[in-house]
Amino acid sequence: MRVVFYCPWANAETWLSELRACAPEFTFVAWPELDDSAPIEAAVVWRPPAGMLRQLPNLRVVCVMGAGVDYLFGPGIEPPDVPIVRLVDPVMTERMASYVLAAILYHQRQLGRYRAQQAQRVWRQSMHKDTSEVRVGIMGLGAMGRASAALLGAVGYDVAGWSRRPTSLAGVRCYAGRDQWRPFLARSDVLVCLLPLTPATRGILSRATFDALPEGAVVINAARGEHLIEADLIAALDAGRLAGAVLDVFSIEPLPEDHPLWRDPRVLITPHVASLSNPASGAAQIAAALRAIRAGRAPAHLVDRDDYLQAAPREASV
Ligand SMILES: NC(=O)c1ccc[n+]([C@@H]2O[C@H](COP(=O)([O-])OP(=O)(O)OC[C@H]3O[C@@H](n4cnc5c(N)ncnc54)[C@H](OP(=O)(O)O)[C@@H]3O)[C@@H](O)[C@H]2O)c1
User: Pick from 258, 253, 289: which is nearest to 270 by CA?
Assistant: First the structure.
């Protein structure tokens, strides 16, 4: 089986070597260096160029080299009607959980303030909340949300989560659906977005959401930039409703040089690094998916494309 590979990341060569080592029975060819020797039956991609997948009429599966698949449903991509598989990787979930913990600690222990004081050689102590007093609310209790909830709970935070369907998790207060959205927000001193980007969740970090949080809450977005309405965030920070934010993702990446968020001392910016995909463990998962397809079995971690194609009004809106 021939597999086309497209990856715009700097470590694309590492990925290709890992894939070839993990799945030597498949032939990997890098896009666009195709020849006509045999049809391409699978694609391993991240952010494929517009029209690429439609030029591959024999595709049987698309494997995405990350946890989020929203880019596949962007303008001009038109994923063919074949199974789409995403990464659900323990290495990545651990990376996300440690990012969320670090982001919470940054604000809880006021590290930004002390960094600024250091620059001025100022010795001034400030009080902070103890860990058990900090109520964290995680939007999305999937692979990333669950791992983050488990780590935060183990450290001693008061953790709640919100998902689409009711679920239960040891040590986590679980909320679900529109009816429980406001009660969930009302107890979230720190709101962490780990939702997939779909028509139902786009723009969910909005003024209405910020207004429903406790005064002085902190927002962490490590999901997708389009979850956040940036102007609403800046207005909520200016009004004092929010104390700060940690943002890993942006609607335009890289964040443009003249963007006001760069200069905002209340916001910590990281360049989409919360949970980078890991070539070794990711390639092993992709190899398993390709083998499942070749054997006529359903691979694990299939994407429900209806979640991404619905033009429905926001289920999650308040
Ligand atoms: N910044 C980074 O480096 C980075 C890295 C990896 C991933 N990510 C982002 O993290 C996202 C989450 O990844 P994951 O693997 O945890 O996804 P996942 O396993 O699919 O989990 C999604 C969670 O969101 C909930 N959800 C989906 N739609 C919802 C809605 N309309 N209302 C309320 N809850 C909803 C789901 O609830 P149900 O189970 O009830 O449907 C589930 O709990 C990815 O899509 C990606 O965008 C970012």
Answer: 253
